């Protein structure tokens, strides 16, 4: 008997299939734990993994059990205390133990909750699974066109890996039949004539010899036709067609004026960090434009957006004007899906709020797919919120939410970008 020994080294991801099957099976419990975990996270550990506790009762398998009434016969092997005919008393109810929350007891047993550790990728996939950019449309790209390879019939030349065997064999068979048809027809006639000649003696040997030679010659000509030729080869032809695809730009506008203290700026940064992570994980063709503003707005990079210490007065319209200019110069609406997320405490120069309203109504909202405004204040709304309410009445794709503290960030984010059913 042969003995086979597998000496291959175990792969690092050998349990990936089992992990994914487990996640699919207990998805509702895991997603609930992920949502609860996100509420307590800070900006520094926003994209790390998480340990998830799943109650033991949710892991139990369905089994058949007997009810408390009736009689049944059973065999209990290995009993030393009972003999045939003995009555076995039922165990008292409630003698078993459970997990968590009960009082101490000297009897019963239970089982701890199952702890499942999610990796960073699994954790973020579950958290962002049911989120999306609202109203995202497929548009024809202006800079980078996405091509799709499609079937376009057959060609006489191509890559050997693209040979269509069936089509090639059909062509070879047709060619053989066409080239060998005259010789095959004459071969059948010669064979029939020879049979008739041999069946009616006396046999004309000279004619029979001529027929035999002709038959051999015709058979050789038929066999000389090659089974397949390079002329018969057919290759699957594929062409690349330009495909409409999704290309989007997200404008992140953050107020860094003096009224935005350190705590409020930290809340705004946490929101934008979560948004940036969501965009980069879920969308390939996405650009992010960072704009910081106080009295003057400036387009900055990611590093300066999150870590610059610049501050000043408050003129929100400067950021909206800069956004409008960038859209006109770099992001035509025929090729881009435009989105905006703005975070501010709502404090604005009172003469500037009407200007912000007019800029939104005339230059921005007619061209954006979705606009999300987050006001970070525990107090009553400021003049900017009142001006934006007029914009919301006219455009349903304008959303406004208020954030009081860290616990509001994740619920507000999920509410703004949750998947809408058509």
Automatic annotation (TrEMBL):
Protein name: UPF0229 protein BN874_160062
Organism ancestry: Bacteria, Pseudomonadati, Pseudomonadota, Gammaproteobacteria, Candidatus Competibacteraceae
Ranges of Gly residues composition bias in the record: 94-103
Gene from which the chain derives: yeaH
PANTHER family: UPF0229 PROTEIN YEAH
Chain spans, region Disordered: 84-110
Alphabetized InterPro entries for the sequence: UPF0229 (IPR006698)
Database matches in Pfam families: DUF444
Family assignment from sequence similarity: Belongs to the UPF0229 family.
């Amino acid at each position: 008997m042969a003995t086979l020994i597998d000496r291959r080294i175990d792969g690092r991801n050998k349990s990936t299939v089992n992990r994914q099957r487990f996640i699919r099976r207990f998805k509702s419990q895991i997603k609930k734990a992920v949502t609860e975990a996100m509420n307590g996270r800070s900006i520094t550990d926003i994209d790390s993994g998480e340990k998830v506790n799943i109650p033991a009762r949710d892991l139990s398998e369905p089994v058949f059990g007997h009810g408390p009434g009736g009689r049944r016969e059973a065999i209990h092997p290995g009993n030393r205390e009972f003999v045939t005919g003995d009555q076995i008393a039922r165990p008292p109810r409630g003698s078993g133990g459970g997990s968590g929350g009960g009082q101490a007891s000297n009897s019963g047993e239970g089982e701890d909750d199952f702890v499942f550790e999610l990796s960073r990728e699994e954790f973020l996939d579950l958290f962002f699974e049911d989120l999306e950019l609202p109203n995202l449309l497929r548009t024809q790209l202006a800079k980078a066109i996405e091509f799709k390879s499609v079937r376009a019939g057959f060609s006489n030349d191509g890559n050997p890996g693209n040979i269509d065997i069936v089509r090639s064999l059909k062509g070879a068979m047709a060619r053989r039949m066409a080239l060998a048809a005259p010789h095959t027809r004459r071969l059948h006639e010669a064979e029939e004539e020879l049979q008739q000649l041999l069946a009616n003696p006396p046999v004309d040997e000279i004619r029979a010899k001529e027929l035999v030679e002709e038959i051999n010659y015709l058979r050789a000509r038929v066999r000389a036709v090659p089974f397949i030729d390079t002329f018969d080869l057919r290759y699957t032809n594929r062409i690349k067609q330009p495909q409409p695809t999704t290309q989007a730009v997200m404008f992140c506008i953050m107020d860094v004026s003096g009224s935005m203290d350190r705590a409020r700026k930290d809340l705004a940064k946490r929101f934008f960090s979560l948004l940036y992570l969501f965009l980069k994980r879920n969308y390939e063709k996405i650009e992010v434009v960072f704009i910081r503003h106080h009295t003057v707005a400036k387009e900055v990079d990611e590093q300066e957006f999150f870590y610059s210490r610049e501050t000043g007065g408050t003129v929100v319209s400067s950021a909206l004007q800069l956004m409008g200019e960038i859209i006109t110069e770099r992001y035509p609406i025929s090729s881009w899906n435009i989105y905006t997320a703005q975070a501010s405490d709502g404090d604005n120069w009172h003469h500037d709020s009407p200007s912000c309203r007019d800029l939104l109504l005339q230059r921005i909202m007619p061209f954006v797919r979705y606009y999300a405004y987050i006001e970070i204040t525990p107090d009553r709304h400021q003049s900017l919120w009142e001006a934006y309410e007029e914009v919301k009445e006219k455009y349903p794709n304008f959303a406004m939410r208020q954030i009081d503290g860290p616990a509001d960030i994740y619920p507000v984010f999920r509410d703004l970008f949750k998947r809408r059913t058509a």
